[in-house]
Design brief:
globular, iron, Hydrogenase formation protein HypD, 11 strands, Rossmann fold, 15 helices, alpha/beta, HypD_2_sf, iron ion binding, 350 residues, binds iron/sulfur cluster, metal-binding
């Protein structure tokens, strides 16, 4: 920590560093890293929680699909309590929808095999880390000719969200702690624009306390030396080129599309949809749900500002009062990787 203070003092101005990944946010709180940093060196939480950035419209469409008689909807557990426009998946389940929590997309294939008269839909949310397992499940569904398996894809890509933050004049971000897990798949090249186009720093960082502290030191060194580069701290796991096999697998089934990020907006080429060849498994296309009455963000929720690093969760007037993990108003309070949930768990209660 002395080293961080020395380099920071050399820089001599306030510095904003954003951790993009929700797992980093939780690790930073767990290890009490924020409280050890010099005043003026701020760690901001970014949009790296896939549950938090899933749009209300997508949640409402998936709920509508789950209410159909011949559908079994499968989802990861942290999506269950995210509030939609009118209800959550948990509430839809209480009303009779057949919604099942799975631990892997492959579990859906076992469910589809024994429920041949039902359509089994996987609500697929996640970044580059989880998409290969969804592609693997699609591969198996094709290979085993399991025709009653579909996915509703809200899979997203991390680099386009970083670029939008860099284009914004709402906040200045000097450097990014880049996600270790996502980078095992995509490698370093998709982040190069951070340094080359925007002259900012980035370090792909691991999740232990010493990894994060080293990542911060590497970022500060770049800034102190007037350099902008994207570097790898997490070298034991992340390589320059990433996992080409996993990327090929993703590219076989998915293509990029514009995607709506809750709190941020529509980002070009930031999502993944099934390629035309596999469109028969695309739940959005197959069920074609029309939400004519529109969707609205929960009143007073400031998840958008939190996800863009403009406000910290405790600055939201609902934080810890109307909005708690037991009774969440916004998505950032639901997922364990959400900034508001992390602030609540580690700040307010400890
Ligand atoms: Fe949204 Fe709750 Fe976070 Fe406020 S505290 S920004 S209402 S999730």
């Amino acid at each position: 920590m002395e080293l961080i203070k020395n380099i920071y003092n050399k820089i001599g101005r306030p510095i904003n560093i954003m951790e993009v990944c929700g797992t980093h946010t939780v690790a930073i709180f767990k290890h009490g890293i924020r409280s050890l940093l010099p005043e003026g060196l701020k760690l901001l939480s970014g949009p790296g929680c896939p549950v938090c950035v899933t749009s209300i419209e997508d949640i409402d469409k998936v709920i509508a699909i789950s209410m159909l008689d011949d559908v079994i909807l499968c989802t990861f557990g942290d999506m269950m309590r995210v509030p939609g426009g009118k209800k959550s998946l948990s509430e839809a389940k209480a009303e009779g929808a057949d919604i099942r929590i799975v631990y892997s997309p492959l579990d859906c294939l076992s469910i589809a095999r024994v429920n041949i008269n039902k359509k089994v839909v996987f609500f697929s949310a996640g970044f580059e880390t989880t998409t290969p397992s969804v592609a693997g499940t699609l591969f198996e569904a094709e290979r085993q000719k399991i025709d009653n398996f579909y996915i509703y894809s809200v899979n997203k890509l991390v680099p386009p969200a970083i670029e939008i933050l860099l284009q914004s004049d709402e906040i200045n971000i000097d450097g990014f702690i880049l996600p270790g897990h996502v980078s095992t798949i995509i490698g370093i090249h998709p982040y190069k624009f951070i340094a080359e186009k925007y002259k900012r720093s980035g370090v792909i960082t691991g999740f232990k306390a010493e990894d994060i502290i080293t990542g911060i030191v590497m970022l500060l060194r770049q800034i102190a030396e007037g350099r902008a580069a994207v570097e790898i701290q997490y070298k034991s796991v992340v390589t320059e080129i990433g996992n080409q096999k996993a990327m090929d697998f993703i590219n076989e089934f998915f293509e990029t599309c514009d995607s709506y990020w809750r709190g941020i907006g529509m980002l070009p080429n930031s999502g993944l949809k099934l390629r035309e060849k596999y469109r028969h498994r695309d739940a959005e296309a197959v069920f074609n749900i029309d939400l004519s009455d529109g969707v609205a963000e929960p009143k007073g929720c400031q998840c958008g500002l939190v996800l863009r690093g403009i406000k910290i969760p405790s600055e939201c007037p609902l934080f810890g009062k109307a909005c708690t993990p037991e009774k969440p108003v916004g998505a950032c309070m639901v997922s364990t990787e959400g900034s508001c949930a992390a602030y609540y768990k580690y700040n307010l209660l400890s």
